[in-house]
Amino acid sequence: MVKVGEGSLLSGYPLLFHGGFMSYFEELVFTRVTGEEVIANHQFDNGYSVSVTASPSKRGTRISGLYEMAASSPDNTEVPVDVNGWLTDEDVDHLMSKVAALPANGGK
Hints:
Elements: E1 31-34, E2 37-43, E3 49-54, E4 67-72, E5 84-87, H1 89-100
Antiparallel strand pairs: 1-2, 2-3, 3-4, 4-5
């Protein structure tokens, strides 16, 4: 399971449930960038977005079933969460649910 650092924007936010578990990972559409590198982007209603990638040169490959994910805020300032790597699809789902639960407009 992915652990999000204490004091980060993502700590303490629950998973989102809408009549059952909402799988953000299954909604991602990956496009091939080069060779084995793939990327998918998702924009949430709260203005935050995530980029999920897999590549032999990153912290996760599709062959191994692991991914890397980064989040960005509505005002393009850094989200106080490191880029997370070596994530399973369940880990990506979990983190995406936390990003989706953040307050709109960066909590401002």
